[in-house]
Amino acid sequence: MKTKHYVIIVVCLFLLITALTNPGTEKHKEEVKLKMNAFLEKEMNKENTTQNDEFSAAGSLMGNVLAKSMINMMVDNLVSSSNYILFSTTTVTIEGKTKTIGFGILGNIFLSSKIDEALKQ
Question: How much of the chain, in percent, has pLDDT values that exceed 90?
């Protein structure tokens, strides 16, 4: 075989692997949930360092559970993905406006750093 044939085979193999490992909508949603829950944990830990009594700890735990369930419901309703066979994009729709916040390729999801900025606000 000629070198040209090997290049064509390698490119076709790469395209096949990329298409087969393209992450689905659930993986996109799970990645956004993980990012938001990590932010919530970090913020809750900042507040927990100043609380010493048992009632504050119990209230903080209940607030954490409620916040996580709200995050899960919000992500399920607002986050979606678009599949482009070789890659996919993570989109969020708020007040009728759709924004792309990440993309997925080869089984991985890469979220934009703009999410961190928006969460801090």
Answer: 26
As given in the structure block, the two tokens for residue 113 are 């750093």
Tens-place pLDDT, residues 46-70:
666 555 666 666 667 777 788 888 8
Bridge partner list, 102: 90, 111
- The structure tokens listed for 98 are 């759709």
Q: Give the distance, in angstroms, between the CA of residue 59 and the centroid of all CA atoms in the same chain.
A: 28
Write down the H helix ranges in 1-121. Answer: 3-20, 25-48, 54-78, 114-120
Interatomic CA distance for residues 67 and 86, integer angstroms: 35
How far apart are the C-alpha atoms of 91 and 78, rounded to whole Å? Answer: 8
What radius of gyration, in Å, describes the C-alpha atoms of the chain? 20
d(CA 65, CA 80): 24
